[in-house]
Amino acid sequence: MKTVSSALAAHLGERLTTLATCWRVARRDGAVFGFTDHDRDLVFESVTYRAQTGYQRSAVASRADLSVDDTEVLGILDAAEIDAPSLRAGIWDGAEVRIFLVNWADLSQGALRLRRGRLGEAIARDDGTFRAELRGLAQALNVTVGELYTPECRADLGDARCRVPIRPPLRADSTAYALGQFVRVETDTSATGTYREQERIYECTVAGTSAASPPTFNTTIGNTTTDGSVTWTARLAWTLPATVASAPDLQTIVIQNTGEAPTKPDGWFEAGVAIFETGLNAGVARDVLGWVQATRTLTLFLPLPFPATAGDVLRIQPGCDKRLATCRDRFGNRLNFRGEPWVPGDKGVVETGVA
């Protein structure tokens, strides 16, 4: 049941109304934005709802059968509020949205809440507009609870169950570290981006507490560094830095022949992620569709918002196809494999039953 103040209820019953729709967006990074279809800005509950970013929404309908209520929001891209690069980079995905009606002539009457949910797919169009899908609260009921037996691994590369140190945290002063933990260390402060870490991560091989200031780390793979009562052993990083040599188009990048990344075999980065650290695309992440070692060519699944230029720095994470052979041979992580590769499929079960 929706509640509304008596004053606003009376206004809704009048033949002539002065209503405006507002939507409040709280992104996952904590930033809050307000928009309205009124012709001037409105300030409601300490949030300014801006009129300069025009939008329209589809009809809002609620159902009693627990099916997901979806609403579409169409709007005009505005550089000060919502721009194409931020939409394409996924910054707005999953943002909490609240849509409500107010009497713009008397905001003290309160609001009639229409919809609350989260942004699903947000698309920036070439004509300068965007389309965003608002998923209702019932969307959470569609989440699968529990797991199924599958031949492929159910963990994601680098998560708490996989445990491959794809991108460990930076080392901290005066901190207790346990055996087997990994950290990153900026061992070259004159370099740019991930090159500051010199393609290395460090494994705690003797547990203890780090020193109040970082020591000089030995970057030779296999060598150790004493840090307070902790001993670190240098390992090759999984996430590797790379520099753009050229970019024939928005989905194709040729990287320079320097460092460890160009030596990786074909397919190493497929299904991985390329994250730009400098240039116009700084902060943009794209899934990797293909990697050809001979030509040092990286193909992205989706185009970049801006052309990459020579000298741009990015870091590239390897891909995982979730098969046992890949987990064992590429990552040496067989003990943490979260699949059942020898479980028969439907065809195998039927044939076994017939036999």
How many individual helices? 4
Low confidence ranges: none
Report the sheet with the most strands, covering strand number, pairing sense and barrel closure: 9 strands, mixed
- Work out the oligomeric state of the chains in this entry: single chain
Give the averaged pLDDT, no decimals: 84
The 3D shape can be described as elongated
- Alpha-beta classification: mainly beta
Helix content: under 10%
Question: How far from one another are the termini?
Answer: 58 Å
Strand content: 25-35%
Describe the structure.
With 355 residues, the protein is mainly beta. It is built from 4 helices and 21 strands. It has helices at residues 6-12, 84-88, 324-329, 346-354; strands at residues 19-26, 32-36, 42-44, 47-50, 55-57, 70-76, 96-103, 111-124, 129-136, 176-177, 182-183, 200-206, 208-209, 224-227, 230-236, 240-249, 252-255, 273-276, 285-292, 297-300, 313-317. Strands 3-4-2-1-7-8-9-6-5 form a 9-stranded mixed β-sheet. The chain has a 6-stranded antiparallel β-barrel with strand order 16-17-20-19-18-21. The longest helix has 9 residues, at 346-354.
Describe the structure concisely for a colleague.
The longest helix is centred in the last third of the chain and has 9 residues, at 346-354. The chain has 355 residues and is mainly beta. The protein is elongated, with a radius of gyration of 26 Å.
